[in-house]
Structures are given as structure tokens and as C-alpha cells.
UniProtKB/TrEMBL annotation:
Low complexity bias (residue ranges): 20-32
Enzyme class: oxidoreductase
Protein name: aldehyde dehydrogenase (NAD(+))
Keywords: Metal-binding, NAD, Oxidoreductase
Region (Disordered): 1-33
Positions annotated as active site in the UniProt record: E258
Organism: Exophiala bonariae
Family: Belongs to the aldehyde dehydrogenase family.
Record-annotated Aldehyde dehydrogenase domain positions: 26-488
Lineage: Eukaryota, Fungi, Dikarya, Ascomycota, Pezizomycotina
Amino acid sequence: MTVASQTSVPDRHTFYAGKSQPSSTSSGSFQSVDPSTAKPVCTIHTSSPSSIDAAISAARAAFPTWSSTPPIERSRILLKAVSLLRARNDELAKIETLDTGKAFSETSTVDIVTGADVLEYFANLIASGGLNGESFRLRDSAWVYTSKEPLGVCAGIGAWNYPIQIALWKSAPCLAAGNTMVYKPSEVTPLHAQFLAQIYKEAGVPDGTFNVVYGAGDVGGYLTKHPGIAKVSFTGQVATGRKVAGSAAGEMKYVTMELGGKSPVIVLPDADVDQAADGALLANFFSSGQVCTNGTRVFVPEKLKAAFEKKVLEKMAFVKAGDLADPTTNFGPLVSKVHHEKVLGYIRRGIENDRATLLCGGPEKPENLPTHLQNGFWVKPTVFTDCTDDMEIVKEEIFGPVMSVLTYRSIEEVVQRANNTDLGLAAGVFGTDINECHRVIKQLEAGITWINTWGESPAEMAVGGWKQSGVGVENGRRGLEAWLRNKSTLVEMGGAVPTVFAKL
């Protein structure tokens, strides 16, 4: 039995003021598609400009009440939402699998779980003084105190690879800080948004505090330019992020940008080859390679190349495509037809133009797919070796299950090559000398780094990219600060107002 056959999703409309609000039919619609079968799931009605205006107005109307609610009370409401998310984990995971094409074995253990963790973290943070300011004595007769104030109505623009997790990464600190939000999910994976809105409502979040609009880039652009929006938080590709950031900054809005990467995995000369191969597979084939932090440039010492490739080939047997509801399936299709064609194009260019050695995989569908999945957006997990830095598959973000293996001779060389990119989202090293691991990590130009592991981003860990990979951070204590503005007050208690205009 497939996930799709167990799940029914009604058509979606703009959600604001606590309920679904049908848009004008003239605004258009689009289909949500199951990537594993290429069959439509439901119709999503595009939010018209008037519907977006109404959603922003609802958020503005809710802001005074929500922002003035004591942090401890906001915390209790958000913790109830955490409880609802966890109670409905499997139900929501089926929606994520239907929408993204990720295996249920992944969505049921990662997507909702990690999103709920972040909401719980921020709810507990504001309950334990996370919104407290500071105070200090300036001089005998004066002191200064600061306060952390919410921004107002904020826009969250989500990505398609981790829909509900990203929605929670944005809405959790936003709401915890006392802001309200208008959220636009990716048009490729929009199904989660109303489910999350309904959970917030059921938990006691006031109507209008979390609202949902639907559509493509034009809807996101309308939100970004809207004078009623105080901040834009965007997750997506670099080219789009530049446009969003430029537009928002031109209107003097706050921004957080989490963008793409072309991250290096460095296998040090003393590394355990078996563990390094495990790390490389995790860094390339989890979520079918559709992760912004994926370590797609795998640097291996020349002397370890043969052993490393042997281990990778052995372990590829455990990357299993198939029925997404099967608990043994751990590799799904790509998210859409357009993205499928893009990734296939890169694989073909790797073979035909770059002339890299195809170690395994290729542009074909995985073998032994069930009949009902043959029309889905499937591709084999692919490994290229004998790669060089100037190859297209090495330089450009593919966002699919494509690993490039490169060799190096010295640490100084590999650090320089790893940093030779405009992107700086993530990086990692594998080695047994932990001091050497730290020394190499310190030299890598990336905002998220790992040693002897890959990919984990707990709620307590602030994450964000360097260079063209982003602006600001999400999660951790600094992640809350990104949704607040500072107010400083100086209090004079000396009984006299200092002035240069006193009588001489």
C-alpha cells in the first residue's frame, strides 16, 4: 500500500484570520503532484493580491494582542502546538512524503520531529528569560536599560525540500518573539502549510497570527515589497535569494537568507575509510541529494582513493529506492519534473562534457521499481570520480544525488581548493587526529561545519551561510535575536536636566 493511496488532501486556498478564505477564480491555480508517481494530488488556488493584502491585514490586526501576551503565556501556547505536532507525527509525515517524494522512513523520523524540536526550543527559551534585556549603571545619577521588541508582521518564504521543517524554523522564533507571520510555502510542496496553520490555531495561537498564501515567485515578490511587512525570511536558491534580499533591503526591511551551497567533504589522510565512506553517502544521498548543505565535493588523499571508492561501491547497495511507505526504502524520487530534468542534465554533462569517470549510477531510473512508480521522477544515486575543480558538475549546485570524488596531495592544497567557491554554506572533515580536524575546520570558509559526521542541525545550534550562501542565522539563541529589534533607554535620576542653555 502506497502513502498516496492512504492520504487524501482537499484543495487549498489562502488561509488568514483563522480560516481558509477562497480567492477569486481569476487568480488561477496549480496542481500539487506526487513525485513518486507524477500524478496530481490536489489543486492549490493562487493567492490574489487582494487576498495577500487581507492576510497581511489579519496579521497586523493580531499583532497588538500577540505581542503583548506575556512570554510565559506565549510559551505555553507554542508548547501545546509542539504536543500536537508530535501526536500527529505520522499523519503529517505521510503528507510530507506525498508532497516531496521522500521516503516515509525519513519524513516520520526527521521532518516533523526536528521542526517540533525547534518550536519547543524557542518556546522554552522565551519562558526562561530569552527576551530579557540588560541594564547597567552609567554613572551615579544615571542608568541604562534595553528591551527586545518584536518587529511586527513578518514574511516567511519556504523551500520545497523540507517544507514543514522550514516552516517551523521560520515561524517558531517569529511567533516566540511576539511577531505575526504571513507564510508562503514553495509552490512545489505546499501541502503542509494549512496543516501547520490549523495546529497553531488549535493550540491557541490567536487568529491572524499565522497566515498562509500560495503561489510562485510573483506572490513572494508581492510579499517582499509590501509596506506592511517588517521582515522577510527566505530559504532557497542563491539567484532568487539575491533578488529577494535586494528587494527587501531597498524597502529597509530586516532579512534572513538561507541559500545554496557546494560544500566540501575533506577526508584526511589518517581517516577511517569505512567511516568516511558512510559520511560521504550521508552527505550526498540523504533526501535524494536534495539538501542545501550536501557535501557534494568529496576530497580524498591520492593514496586513499582506491580504498575509498571500493567502500563507497560496497555501501551503495544499501541505498534503496522503492515504495515510499516501505520502512526499508531510504531513497525517493526527485521533487518535480522540472527538477528531474535539471539533475539528469547535469549527470549527462558529467559523462559527455566533463568526461568524469562514472563510478556508479547514471541517468537511468533505479532498477526494480514497482510498476505504479515507473512514471515518477526517479534517478539513480550517482558517483563520479577522477573529477577536477573546473568540471561543471564540481562547480555548480546540482541539488540532486550526484557525488564528485576529487583527490589531493596536501592539506594546504585541499583547503585552498575547498574554499575556491563563491558559496560557503557547509563543510566537514573526517579524520582520527581530532586536533588536526579542528585545525582544518578553522580554515574552511563556511558557516556550518562538522567533524566526523554530517548534516545534523539541532535546535540549539545557530546555522547560516557565509559568502553567497546567506545572511543571518537560524536556530540557537542568535536565531531568536534575528526576529527582534533593540530599544535602549537612558534614565537620568539626578534631579536636573543637563543643558547648554542655562543662564550664565
